[in-house]
Amino acid sequence: MAENIRYFPVNWIDGMKINKNHFIELQDNVEDLVRDARNMGVNQLKYGLLSTRFKAPFEYSVIIDEHNELNVSIKFLKAITPGGGRIEITDYTGEFSEKISLENYDFKENNRFLLLNVDPYNRVPTGTQNMDEIPPRFPHAMPKYYLTTVAEAEVTQNNIGPLQFPIGKFSSRGSVFETVDTYIPPCITVNSHPSLVKLFEAYDAFFKQMEFYAVQISQKIRFRRLSGDENLIADIVFATLEKILGYVGQSINQNRWNGFYSSPMEVLDKVVSLARIMKNSFDSFSGDGKEMVFNYFSEWTTELGSGDYEKLFSETINLKYKGYDMEPCVKGVMEFIEKTDHLFSILNQLDYIGRKKDSGIFVNENIVKTERTSGIFFKQEDDKNADNQDGSTSFLAD
Questions:
Q1: Between the CA of residue 144 and those of 95, 148, 169, 216, what are the distances in Å?
Q2: Is 102 in contact with 69 (CB distance < 8 Å)?
Q3: CA-to-CA distance for 41 and 64, rounded, in angstroms?
Q4: Which of 181, 168, 162 is nearest to 77 (CA)?
Q5: Are 170 and 178 contacting, i.e. CB atoms less than 8 angstroms apart?
Q6: Is the dihedral of CA 381, 386, 387, 392 positive or negative?
Q7: Structural domain boundaries in the chain
Q8: d(Cα 118, Cα 94) in Å, to the nearest integer?
């Protein structure tokens, strides 16, 4: 969203009297123009931590002590705000720290976000004072930073200020405050935060694994059809696998090319879209067909009942992406990845789709040796002996 340009060029004319205010106005105009240029590449859904070459783009702590005082210490932070404001706190600028007393806050059960504000037009002297000048002067200036808080109920995607950046979240329970350690701040790319790196690794492996499962299970269903053995469960699974194979096949190369420079919203959207494709495919066999398939799934994966699969798909496709608070969406997507991968790893080990569990027919076919026996979350014990082998889970993707 384009913010208004508020600081305009100085009208220089011959013979005018010059003072420092003219140069301050000139600098404010330059700052505003640079901010506006950065604003063209960011918005309320695309802003946050910037990836760096050798280290994480943030190093800060948010601690609430026993006296209900919020202590914030930022040693390193590189980020951009929704309006193009640049946050740069490094060894060259010095550490930023501030305390906020929580005694006067309304003691209701509520979550609050901690916002770092940057004001590039209100500069703070910095550096080593030059004693050779008269009067002595700090050689440089940096933007002013300060902290504010806002209740979670008052925050939407569009009302984070153009020069604000959420760095933390804390909750109040009566008169007790505690920080939310799982909070993920806004990020431009997934390599900006360790939790998002884990998300991308799981997502990338999941899509490759689903491609592998789709091909293997489809081959078994086709083979049974050639021998004249058809059943409704196999037909529904086969139709769903065809849609899965077409979708993940379009994404794997993009995952490889973009890698960890993918945006968090893009990664989360890919998984949620896959859940929608699968749910729509199962829903197209509504009635006895869908219920029969979900009952069949729950028969082989005792962790989830037939109703749990319906709930899993519905909750996943209804996840809401919030750039200022991604953790709930990331948690939901990771749960879908883990449970779906486990389901299809079991189906892939069956001799054919449709047999009941008590029939005694259960064949584990190791057609392609991978580093996992039951999907992306279960490693084999003999991984150490396979260090010289390719660790990919999909012969198609690699």
A1: 13, 13, 22, 59
A2: yes
A3: 35
A4: 168
A5: yes
A6: negative
A7: 20-179, 190-386
A8: 15
For the chain, count helices (H), then strands (E). Answer: 7, 9
105-109 CB contacts, 8 Å cutoff, 24+ apart: 105/172, 105/177, 107/172, 107/174, 107/175, 108/172, 109/171, 109/172, 109/173, 109/174
Each residue of 218-264: pLDDT tens digit?
Answer: 998 988 877 766 688 889 999 999 999 999 998 999 999 999 999 99
Query: Collapsing DSSP states into helix, strand and coil, what is residue 59?
Result: strand
Taking alpha carbons only, the member of 297, 200, 202 closest to residue 240 is 297
**Residue reference for tokens 């979670």:** 152
8 Å CB contact between 171 and 180: yes
Burial of 29 (0-12, 13-18, 19+ CB in 10 A): middle
Q: What is the DSSP string of 60-107?
A: EEEEE-TTSEEEEEEEEEEEE-TTS-EEEESTTT--EEEEEE-TTS--
pLDDT band, residue 384 (cuts 50/70/90): very low
Amino acid at 328: P
Q: What gap in Å lies between CA 58 and CA 77, rounded to an integer?
A: 4
Find the helix or strand (DSSP H, E) in which 140 lies. strand 140-151
CB 195 within 8 A of CB 329: no
Q: What is the pLDDT of residues 90-133, one digit of tens each?
A: 988 889 999 998 877 766 668 899 999 999 999 999 888 888 88
CA 199 to chain centre: 7
362: confidence class by pLDDT, cuts 50, 70, 90: very low
Q: What's this model's pTM, rounded to 2 decimal places? A: 0.84
**H-helix segments, 288-356:** 288-300, 306-317, 327-349
What is the Cβ-side half-sphere exposure of residue 16, based on CA atoms within 13 angstroms? 9
